[in-house]
Amino acid sequence: MTGAYSVTFGRILNRLLSPRERLLWEASLARNARDYAKGADIVREGERPAALRIILSGWAQKYKQLPDGRRQILALLLPGQPCDLDLFTVVRTDHSLSAVRRLTIAEIGRQEAITLVRQCPNLAQFLCWSEIVTAAIQREWTINIGQRNAIERVAQLMCEIFARQQGIPASGGGECDFLLTQWQLAEATGLTQVHVNRTVQELRRRCSVELRNLRLFIPDFAQLASIAAFNANYLHLDEAEPAVDRAAALFGGGGAG
């Protein structure tokens, strides 16, 4: 697993889990790894949840689709991120999950997941934290579609995807994976594909942002963030240690060391 977003999850796991718990967790991920081709559905809306899913490599997308075929991408899931806790909470899933491109995901079945949580009590704290971060991202996506204009929406999503993989640069910019097509970018921002194309061209003109060969190039992150009014607080990127300390205080956890 690579990228700053994965590192954040990794740091929390390393602090929370004891050496024995980490061995059990990593063995379960390896044992249950499964590959999906680009665009393949992993879960379809209305199905009974059957597994606890963790992204190992590639990106996944949550989406909902109307009867006439219109589709909205609700969330992007990057390496190291649990997909959801549906397995423990609902009878039928209310959204679909698919591979953005080639994807490797761990699918831990119900009984093994229950056993794993019992054997690794600190794991529950990690899963709880991941759901809190996922909900924070969802709130930002809601305001993105509800209040930002087209160029702000696309700039915001670019900033988020960059920050989740690379963190926030102290100066200048950099590059990161960007696996979305312009059609998927449109579905994630509530715009038409034509509008997205024009918006990307405008961002290229204004701040030299480029999408090329499944990579996003941002020469000046601060400039792009200013266009989007981007504030990375909702990503909780640097909160691994404080989050673990609070969990330890509340639950007596933190068995790593």
Describe the structure.
By secondary structure, the chain is α+β, with helices and mostly antiparallel strands. It folds into two domains: 4-142 and 237-251, Jelly Rolls; 149-228, Arc Repressor Mutant, subunit A (Orthogonal Bundle), CATH 1.10.10. The chain contains ten helices and ten strands. It has helices at residues 4-16, 19-31, 86-89, 110-119, 123-147, 150-166, 182-189, 193-207, 221-228, 240-251; strands spanning 33-36, 41-43, 51-57, 60-65, 71-77, 96-99, 103-109, 174-177, 210-212, 215-218. The strands form three sheets. A four-stranded antiparallel sheet has the order 2-6-4-5. Strands 1-7-3 form a three-stranded antiparallel sheet. It has a three-stranded antiparallel sheet with strand order 8-10-9. Helix 1 packs parallel to helix 10 (240-251), helix 6 packs across helix 8 (193-207) and helix 7 packs across helix 8. Mean pLDDT is 90; it is low at 1-5.
CATH architecture of the largest domain: Sandwich
Strand order of the largest sheet: 2-6-4-5
CATH superfamily of the largest domain: Jelly Rolls
Structural class: alpha+beta
* Continuous helix count: 10
Quick check: average pLDDT?
90
The end-to-end span amounts to 22 Å
At CATH level 3, the topology of the largest domain is Jelly Rolls
How helical, in percent, are the residues?
A: 40-55%
Structural Rg = 19 Å
H/E order of the elements?
HHEEEEEHEEHHHEHHEEHH
Oligomer: single chain
Strand fraction band? 15-25%
Main pleated sheet: 4 strands, antiparallel
Total separate domains: 2
Describe the global form.
globular
DSSP, total strands: 10
Low-confidence stretches: 1-5
Q: CATH top level of the largest domain?
A: Mainly Beta
InterPro entries: cNMP-bd_dom, cNMP-bd_dom_sf, HTH_CRP, RmlC-like_jellyroll, WH-like_DNA-bd_sf, WH_DNA-bd_sf
Domain HTH crp-type: 148-222
GO molecular function: DNA binding
Pfam families: cNMP_binding (PF00027), HTH_Crp_2 (PF13545)
